[in-house]
Design brief:
single chain; alpha/beta; 3 helices; 6 strands; about 30% helix; elongated
Length: about 130
């Protein structure tokens, strides 16, 4: 159940209304996870800056959290340039405006349906 968060100082109107579903459709096969398990948050119109005093310049911060996907640094090396290309080609956001973070999550550290994902995967009732 990957978690995708996109935070930006761009106005909501400057992004396509389907930007996040498009992003999920793009990354799901790259991360080898079904689209239906993704959770996403889009936060626009934020006061933020890449650097100490650049709040007037476009800035996009993408955070992706997933179980297992980012254990191997090679997966991040493969995914990163493809994501930058997606932002440039699909959302017309220049690469120098984007920062990406990838977080590996432990299934024991995610709660769902009254238990942890690790317990759900193991078939342990809550």
């Amino acid at each position: 159940m990957p978690l995708v968060t996109l935070v930006t100082n761009l106005k909501a109107a400057s992004l396509p209304t389907d930007a996040m579903p498009r992003l999920i459709r793009f990354i799901a096969p790259l991360m080898n996870k079904p689209q239906e398990v993704y959770n996403w948050v889009l936060e626009t119109d934020k006061v933020m800056s890449k650097g100490s005093d650049n709040s007037d310049k476009p800035y996009v911060w993408l955070k992706i959290e997933a179980i297992g996907t980012f254990e191997d640094p090679e997966n991040i090396k493969v995914l990163t340039p493809k994501l930058f290309d997606f932002f440039k080609n699909e959302l017309t956001i220049e690469q120098d405006c984007i920062l990406m973070n990838f977080y590996n999550l432990a299934a024991t550290h995610i709660g769902k349906n009254g238990t942890t994902v690790a317990q759900l995967r193991a078939g342990i009732p809550n």
